[in-house]
């Protein structure tokens, strides 16, 4: 067990692992041949926290080559240097926001074409459980309503390597990029997650972090943090970590309750509940279309239609002047 003064926390890691991967700290709820310290944690999944890395997706895939990554293993970092979004577009990763990657189970719907919208809907539901009203802008953006329409507060990207499917997720909690940092012809502005700045909410996530890591702190005071009295003095990484732990817990709970068995209506109904622009007429740029008029997937520049729902494989269903169209790829734009 090592204590690093600059982190203001007890850090648990394998020395060689930490050195190789620039680990801030890593947590495990089991001890293997003395390689890991046994941490009294309430978490039901493995967590690795890093300081500065290229992206949580990259790190998750890197670790998956070295060790088994169980479902809902979570990667978290303070700084993400080369975040990416849909079509490998650059993701502006400002410091002090949530950057995480979550290993997904190899079960339906995550082993199907519906994986991205299904996970997005489950994440939106988890955020609502934590007190944040958000919606899913198909296929992978987390948005919230404002007085002027919508603003984007997060994004999700699924990648599979080494037979491991990982969901990368970034959520703006303490800062949001200005419009001049967004990609050209962006549809909606970026924003911060509403109500996250409330001191009581931040302290709640901070306490969740503490209680998750050191559930036996009262019995073992040496495993306890010395907390600051003022929220301004608390390192933001612990607030963000607590938020992440709580978010993954809610995602995991919904999965276990609804998707342990094959149930294609559970995630689809959830998607419709959180689907932004449902009933609105929209444009889909770089649309990949699959409908009754064509065999296979057809690429089009722009498709216009009214969003009426989602298909069994997560397709966006549009009602157009040419009939029903199924969109399997593309971006909702102006």
Report what the structure shows.
With 334 residues, this protein is α+β, with helices and mostly antiparallel strands. Helix content is 24%, strand content 30%. It has six helices and 14 strands. The strands form three sheets. The chain has an eight-stranded mixed β-sheet with strand order 3-4-5-6-10-9-8-7, with helices on both faces. Strands 11-12-13-14 form a four-stranded antiparallel beta barrel. Helix 2 links the parallel strand 4 and strand 5.
In summary, what is this structure?
With 334 residues, the chain is of the alpha+beta class. Helices cover 24% and strands 30% of the residues. The strands form three sheets. It has an eight-stranded mixed β-sheet, sandwiched between helices. Strands 11-12-13-14 form a four-stranded antiparallel barrel.
Shape: globular
- What is the share of helical residues? 10-25%
Number of strands: 14
Radius of gyration: 21 Å
Beta-strand content: 25-35%
Kindly report the spatial arrangement of strands forming the biggest sheet.
Answer: 3-4-5-6-10-9-8-7
Features:
single chain; 334 residues; eight-stranded mixed β-sheet; 30% strand; four-stranded antiparallel barrel
